[in-house]
Design goal:
The complex is a heterodimer of chains A (189) and B (302).
Chain A lengths: L1 H11 L1 E4 L29 E17 L5 E16 L14 E9 L2 E4 L2 E4 L2 E9 L2 E9 L6 E9 L2 E8 L3 E11 L2 E6 L1
Parallel strand pairs in A: 1-12
Antiparallel strand pairs in A: 2-3, 2-11, 2-12, 3-4, 3-5, 4-7, 5-6, 7-8, 8-9, 9-10, 10-11
Chain B lengths: L4 E2 L5 H20 L4 H23 L5 H17 L1 H11 L14 H10 L4 E2 L1 H16 L7 E2 L3 E4 L6 E2 L2 E11 L2 E9 L5 E12 L4 E4 L5 E4 L4 E9 L2 H6 L4 E10 L2 E12 L4 E2 L26
Antiparallel strand pairs in B: 1-2, 3-14, 4-13, 5-6, 6-7, 7-11, 8-9, 8-10, 8-12, 12-13
Amino acid sequence: MRRAIVLVLALAACHHHRDSNAPGISDIEVPPADRTVARVDPQDPGENMLAVNPGLLAGGGARKDSPHALGELGPEISVVRGWNPRSHSEDGFFIYPLVGVGAALGWSALRLNGGDADLGPLYAEVYRVEDGFAAGGGWSWNPVDGDHGPQLFGTIMGFYVRARYLFDDGGELTAGLQIKVPTVWVWSR
Amino acid sequence: MSEVRPSPLLHPLPIAAAALLLLNDHLLKPAAWPSAAVAGKLSDLCGLFVFPLLMTAITRPRWASVWVIATGLAFAALKLSPGFNRAVGVVWGGNAMDPGDLACLPVLALSWLHLQRGAAPAGALRRAAATAFIAVACAATPAPRYQREFPFWEVTDNATPVLGCAETAAWVVKSGKTGLGLTVRLHATGGACTIDLGGAALRLADGTVVRGVPERRHLDLARCQIEHVYLPFLFDSEAAWNLGVRSGAIDLELATGGVAHTWSMPVRHVLRAYQSTHNTAPPPTPALSACASDAPVKEMAK
């Protein structure tokens, strides 16, 4: 079972190159300084990226007017459309847009509050990615009791902080770890 | 109470070798200091020394000699076998295939001698810490660096015709999103030569015609003189690429010694790979014929 999970992660966490927009930047109108050279290499226009990131969020926090700590665990999938000013030079695990915009759908599925476990709200968010940070906001809605309200969040690397205000239940603040397995499509700007 | 056992890794020598391996792989090698060759050999020396110790530490002491021999064989295969090198590269990062690196193999004797000496017993925590540190040093080889490759227009045929009194050559010197630039070399191998460059047109495979204007139109070449003329073709090469229009032909009207010629050369837009691990050297410019200014003038074919 463990091997199967590792294999799935290895297959999913990858990036794919596409050859759209592939030509580089070259000032064609200007002759080369040395007329005898064989080639003037084009300059790097950078890369566009599309990342699809399914994963899990696990964290804890506090809810206003509740004496107990709050725990939460749930799935999230996000899509980020972004770009890097320079093309990537490593072909490793973490090829990811440095700048971009994203949207996420998630579910704070399992909520632990004191001794109680119940289903938390679904949410949709939009956000901005900038140099490894992301920040944005959205709306949450609990399908069980219909409670809903706005939420704001920020992430840095694999960590997140989320503030949520549900009109019936009140405000809450949670923080934790997000484990996502991105698949990224890369093509030239 | 943790079990007290000896470990060949709990000694200043393997710890220092692993530290040097980390330092070299992540600082000295990228900076090619003191040189790329020395930094490369240093990694091989440190790696060959600590790897059998690591494997012995995590298996059984009596397998020490087996690990020394296996490390030597694997290292030799890594440096000599392209298939093995590629396979290892997939999981462990790129490793230069240089048979000269086999000169580092004698360090395995030091590794074996170290394994034969007694090791001081230590608790599980110290053993685990030393094993983890050395395993990270061995595993954390730097990822190979890649460089983006870009498609480039190329003249694929008829790049070096002799046209009257001039031996000519053409190659694409610039290629990018906004078009291509052609260098035309004119070599007066047939004696003093007057050359007039007329119109130039790039006909793409989809029927688009792009006009090019040479930077100079009239040249008076002395015998054996060589001149280069730049000829830009401005068009949306990126759109053509995205549409799959990646071939065509360049027609160049020119007169050499008063005789008109139409020089037609096929071109193709080529991308060899999205990335490569090394700078792709451009193909050399076409060779020049010998042209001695004091030799008798030969009759050149038109």
